[in-house]
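Format notes (please read before filing issues)

Several people have asked whether sequences and structure tokens are stored in separate files. They are not. Every record keeps both together, in the order shown below: the sequence lines, then the token lines. Line labels are part of the format and must not be stripped during preprocessing.
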Amino acid sequence: MGLGRLRINVFPILFGPPFGLTPVVVPPVPMPSAVAVEFLPPMRWEDLAPESSTDPEVVGACYKEVTSTMQSTLDRLRSENPHPVLRGISRLVSGRSTEDTAFRDVLEAATQR
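Then the structure lines:
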């Protein structure tokens, strides 16, 4: 391969769909995937004083509220769309525009609140 002239002893090879074995210089083609985006309502902490930001218990409670809310939302989104790659492939094959559908889904979710 003439890699000795370039002072290269090894040449990395990548294995993956759709091309199988390819050199790393050829970027892999990403799989089509359906991505769900959801904006949650703001968390209200007006009752907390500014001094509460130094209290580890208050900060821990706020952290726990944020992470539990995010995790429950992610779990719900995952149950609604368990196979995002298969959904993306089916949209690609059917000819439906994923951008239009995704935007419509986000718009419908926002108007339902």
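For reference, the curators noted about this record: The chain has one domain: 30-111. The longest strand covers residues 13-16.
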